[in-house]
Prior knowledge:
The complex is a heterodimer of chains A (112) and B (115).
Chain A lengths: L2 E3 L4 E5 L4 E3 L2 E3 L6 E7 L6 E7 L7 E2 L2 E6 L4 E6 L8 E9 L2 E4 L3 E6 L1
Parallel strand pairs in A: 2-12
Antiparallel strand pairs in A: 1-4, 3-9, 5-6, 5-10, 7-8, 8-9, 10-11, 10-12
Chain B lengths: L4 E3 L2 E4 L5 E6 L6 E7 L6 E7 L2 E4 L8 E4 L6 E5 L8 E8 L9 E2 L3 E5 L1
Parallel strand pairs in B: 2-11
Antiparallel strand pairs in B: 1-3, 3-8, 4-5, 4-9, 5-6, 7-8, 9-10, 9-11
Amino acid sequence: AQTVTQSQPEMSVQEAETVTLSCTYDTSESNYYLFWYKQPPSRQMILVIRQEAYKQQNATENRFSVNFQKAAKSFSLKISDSQLGDTAMYFCAFVSNYQLIWGAGTKLIIKP
Amino acid sequence: GAGVSQSPRYKVAKRGQDVALRCDPISGHVSLFWYQQALGQGPEFLTYFQNEAQLDKSGLPSDRFFAERPEGSVSTLKIQRTQQEDSAVYLCASSLGTSGLDEQFFGPGTRLTVL
């Protein structure tokens, strides 16, 4: 079975700190993409960052970066210089064929 | 429009009623997805359309759930004889291509509450 596990239901950090959200997954596929999506309170899901499984280089998007460990099936998200607007639910997901398989999410709270 | 839109945003139904949820994808997007998101959970896949063809409906939880996209654009998710366990946010997403690896753009969701 293909699964995604996010072991941190909730995290809280001070503004400007760095925070890392964990994600592990299980799949027998060899070609897949991994994603982190953000769902702010009462707002729609938006893509934060994407990683192609065949690429060894970790993806980076401004303050957001990933640590992709393919052998360990681990895909963590690092947010640097966290901002109040980063407060949201964060979902890790991977796509196999066209289906997105999602984790349960991590609620991230950035405190002023 | 600029993004994916869904209507209504909120729907309250009495148990046993039928409901219809609408999704307007981004213009030109070939692929359309429906997801169900229970409170405090991640979304779960319901069904997938490529243009007007429903290629996968394996995630639909029962035969009370039906989805269509007759002209390859707007899609409707219909739930017949609603039950309390159907209460959830229903998300629609669209993507430009058909590879499955394209970014999916999400609508704001319809929050369905069944009393």
